[in-house]
């Protein structure tokens, strides 16, 4: 009988002390996603990649604000948002205890300012996304001046109209067009 008690004492405890002690998670565990809004450029890549539609982005053109939302009640913790984020603003944490008393506590929000078009004045894209594109150009060695910045700060409709007008003028002035 004493031999049995010695074997049990040597074996240790078979169960975890959870919830009285924190439960250790294994490396690579995919828990609650968290957004670092200071790194986010509001490009919406995460919302496109989310298979559960837990991530959404809404544009309010009247106020010039893009709102990012994460509904943790819908999240399946697949990690696609973390994979596609170009600035690593979303990371999956080891937090897995998400029980709340109020359903609204499962909703996370962040707001971003939209850039106004330099031609028509309507908001069209997040200012941070344009700044990020300009920084990537500088990093690759492309000279970035105010003319290039104005080109990036123009909405697609105004860019298209300017390109069509420029092409019409260049075709009209080219020697081949006269023949």
Number of helices: 7
Task: Tell me, briefly, the overall form.
Answer: elongated
Strand order of the largest sheet: 2-3-5-6
Number of individual domains: 1
Quote the average pLDDT.
88
CATH topology assignment:
Alpha-Beta Plaits
- Strand percentage lies at 15-25%
CATH top level label = Alpha Beta
Secondary-structure content class? alpha+beta
CATH-scheme architecture:
2-Layer Sandwich
Q: What is the N-to-C succession of helices and strands? A: HEHEEHEEEHHHH
Number of strands: 6
Main β-sheet description: 4 strands, antiparallel
Question: Would you mind describing this structure in some detail?
Answer:
- By secondary structure, this protein is of the alpha+beta class.
- It has 7 helices and 6 strands; from the N terminus they run H-E-H-E-E-H-E-E-E-H-H-H-H.
- It has a single domain (about 30-170), classed as Alpha-Beta Plaits (2-Layer Sandwich).
- The strands form 2 sheets. Strands 2-3-5-6 form a 4-stranded antiparallel β-sheet.
- The longest helix is centred in the C-terminal third of the chain and has 18 residues, at about 155-175.
Task: Describe the secondary-structure layout.
Layout: H1 2-11, E1 33-35, H2 45-49, E2 55-60, E3 65-71, H3 80-84, E4 90-92, E5 107-116, E6 123-126, H4 127-139, H5 146-152, H6 156-173, H7 175-178
Antiparallel strand pairs: 1-4, 2-3, 3-5, 5-6
In short:
By secondary structure, the chain is α+β, with helices and mostly antiparallel strands.
């Amino acid at each position: 009988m004493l031999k049995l008690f010695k074997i049990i004492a040597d074996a240790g405890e078979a169960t975890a002390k959870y919830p009285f002690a924190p439960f250790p998670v294994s490396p690579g565990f995919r828990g609650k996603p968290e957004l670092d809004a200071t790194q986010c450029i509001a490009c919406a890549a995460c919302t496109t990649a989310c298979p559960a539609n837990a991530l959404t982005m809404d544009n309010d053109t009247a106020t010039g604000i893009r709102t990012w939302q994460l509904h943790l009640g819908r999240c399946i913790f697949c990690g696609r948002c973390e994979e596609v984020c170009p600035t690593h603003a979303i990371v999956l944490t080891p937090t897995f205890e998400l029980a709340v008393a109020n359903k609204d506590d499962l909703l996370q929000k962040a707001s971003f300012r939209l850039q106004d078009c330099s031609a028509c004045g309507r908001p069209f894209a997040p200012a941070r996304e344009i700044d990020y594109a300009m920084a990537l150009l500088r990093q690759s060695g492309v000279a970035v001046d105010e003319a290039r910045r104005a080109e990036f700060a123009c909405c697609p409709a105004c860019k298209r109209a300017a390109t069509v007008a420029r092409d019409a003028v260049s075709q009209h002035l080219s020697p081949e067009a006269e023949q």
